[in-house]
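HUMAN: Mind making up another protein with tokenized structure?

ASSISTANT:
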Amino acid sequence: MVAYVPGITEIDLKKIVLSIQQLAAGRSNAVGTVTLALSAATTVVTDKNCAAGSVILFMPTTANAAAEIGNGTMYVSAVANGSFTITHANSAVAGRTFLYAIHG
């Protein structure tokens, strides 16, 4: 769901309108995929769209990811300009993969 972002000097009205239409349709460049680190208690995600004060939302894409959320052991412990940190169970379970969206 990538949105077209016109440059600051864009003068082509069609490109500007396309960008607005995509935003209204729910497109966003502030999304990604993350797999939790194995045998670690935190995973740092680098994303240029993240800023201090952003809200991070997750959607599990695997059974192991859904179990991690169900266990209540996963939360966002830090949000900064350019990255966020997920604190989670220190586990050797592979495949804890999530889609994420950044708001704000």
User: Anything to note?
Assistant: DSSP finds two helices and six strands in the chain.
